[in-house]
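User: My advisor, Dr. K., asked me to get a structural model of this assembly before our group meeting. I'm new to this, so sorry if the format is off. These are the inputs:
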Amino acid sequence: MTRPQPDTLRIQARLERPGFVLDVDTAFPLEGVTALFGRSGCGKTTLLRIIAGLEQPPGGEVHFRDTAWQSGKTFVPLHRRRVGLVFQESTLLPHLSVRGNLLYGYKRTPEPLRRLHLDEVARLLGIDDLLERRADQLSGGQRQRVALGRALLTSPDLLLLDEPLNALDTQTKREIMPFLARLSDETGIPSLLVTHAPDEVERLATRVAFMHDGQLERLEPLREALARADSPLFREEGAVSVLQGELGPADAHGLHPFGPPEARYRVPSTPGATNDAGRPARLRIDARDVAIALTPPQDVSILNIIPVTIESLDEAPGHHGPARVLAVCRQDDGQTLMAELTKLSTERLGLQPGARAHALVKSVAFLD
Amino acid sequence: MLDLSPTDWMAIEVTLKLALYTTLILLVIATPIAWWLANGRGSPGVRTAVQALVALPLVLPPTVLGFYLLVLLGPAGPVGSTLESWGLNHLAFTFQGILIGSVIYSLPFAVQPLQQAFANLGRRPVEIAGSLGAGRIDRFLTVILPMTRGGFIVAATLAFAHTLGEFGVILMLGGAIPGETQVLSILIYDHAEAMDFDSAHRLSFGLLVFAFAVLFIVYAINRRFDTVRL
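Assistant: The format is fine. Below is the predicted structure of the whole assembly, which you can bring to the meeting.
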């Protein structure tokens, strides 16, 4: 084991359970959101519990920056680690009001360490109006926001989120996502997010740790995880591209420009979303909604025609049968755009890595 | 009801004192045992053994329990003789002796409702409270106790009521010393044996009404908190 480095969370642990062995030796950068991604039962929750101090694997090492949380005989208990925990099911204390829940950890945080306060957290999470309610009078989404706020109010050094959106319906999930997305930017608190949902990773993560069978297979920036055809993120629902850029003001047609001039999209605003101009946004594009043309077509309804360079042609992931090809394309601003094509089209167009082409993007979705 | 003899009143006092002390001691002892049985770590084998040990007074004839306690706490037993060598009294035929007996005899009645309440609670609230900076005692007082108070009320009531009905253990271990070890159940037995059925009836009927009232309250609480099934 190498010396603990500053600004990383180093974990070296081996934990055996009947029919399952977790064996991890890794270091997570303490910045932004790190997603722990994998199927259920792959050990991601167990890893999170080791980090929290809820599991104590014998001989394990956990170092937060230059503090040993677990090392040899040293074991810092959960209540001294200053981590915020949010689980998938409701964990509000039913005998306390929303305010009582929010302040439970705040009151137990030494005054000099309090960086976040009730007013700003309540505003950030949109729960100002709920403070006097009882915990059991809240909807699922409200409960998760209060749970998140309660964790934040301890001004934690690290947030551990164990599938916080899993128990929520799609609508509620959509309602909470923006709060989670803003969280790490606005508070500067690094977080680990356990999830098996690719859309949560695409939307929230800075980097992804792929876990499989108790092993951490790969830790890479989100951009890289989305730029390879064999990414585990694509295994279930097929390949997608996530583009990051800035949204411009709406034009006369109600369309917003997105991205730099060399890869400029025009996108409609989605109802309900706050598409403020100048706001950084993420755009999600399904690879099946992207077509490839060698020359820019003139008479076509598609608005977004982006010049790209083809980087590679691989077998398409997901369950779409054979004869599908995933073309990994590089936009001129350096971002990756995936296109799923039939093998026939690929051959007809004579596509080769390195070729210039135009990507026809049929539809886009906002992530933020 | 009002023409109770001084002996009757003394027995009532001893009985209530015994039940009260037993209940208080049991709440202190049973809480950690119940928590460990419900949510603790450790090998399942050990846990099963402890669970069986705690439940033993439910099936064992009280005379067996009383007999072993008499052997253990009496002047010739290991505990009794050690106490005597320190210049103290052995515990057979003393209030302290029957108090120890009561605690063991009523242990399952305190542990089981608490264990059920703790199992329903699960580890999650405690983990959350820990992540929010609460230490062990803090967690117990601000999370476990308020969230399982129904279980505590049921445990306390059952331990109290069950101690009132104790007979065999006290008969073996305490005898019937008025003001010291003569409890109501023993006194009723003595009255009946002396063919004083009027006195026996007065005390018996009083106990009957009291026991019914206690159980009525327990089930009412049980329904309200919906924590423990008996």
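One thing worth pointing out at the meeting: Chain A touches chain B at residues 52, 54, 77-79, 81-85, 87, 89, 91, 93-95, 104-105, 108-109, 150-151, 154 (CB under 8 Å).

User: Perfect, thanks a lot.
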